[in-house]
Amino acid sequence: MSIETVRKYLQPFHLDNRIQEFSVSSATVELAAQALDCEPGRIAKSLAFLVNETPVLIVAAGDAKIDNSKYKAAFGCKAKMLTPEQTLELIGHAVGGVCPFAVKEGVKIYLDASLKRFTTVFPACGSSNSAIELSLSELEICSHYTDWVNVCKNWV
Q1: Three-class secondary structure of residue 43 per DSSP
Q2: This model's pTM is above 0.85
């Protein structure tokens, strides 16, 4: 999928006109924070996993890391990130532009508690040079999230 797919996906929410495209890469937390001139924690990174054969995205603060014990307690299995090839195939976005919008059917989206300390966050929009600033309630609505989880560390 692409930024155009995400743009169409966000149209019904009247958010498509808020997508920002950069002349530089925003494919990593550090690059996105530089492009947006914000602290890395406000970058809402989308991490792709497989949970009992179900593709899962965990949207977490850019400065947070997965805590294996919290992850196992929440999902009942060891954290197993998808490869870049699996991410494209199962989620529908290439690494560097993975976001919780316009994903393939069957993908479950979880929002991590590490995001809750911010008023707004910046998820990618399907390309390695895009982002959108959203409030947490906007993120909840347009991501069609399953639940909030607390599976990260190093952000408190």
Answers
A1: strand
A2: yes
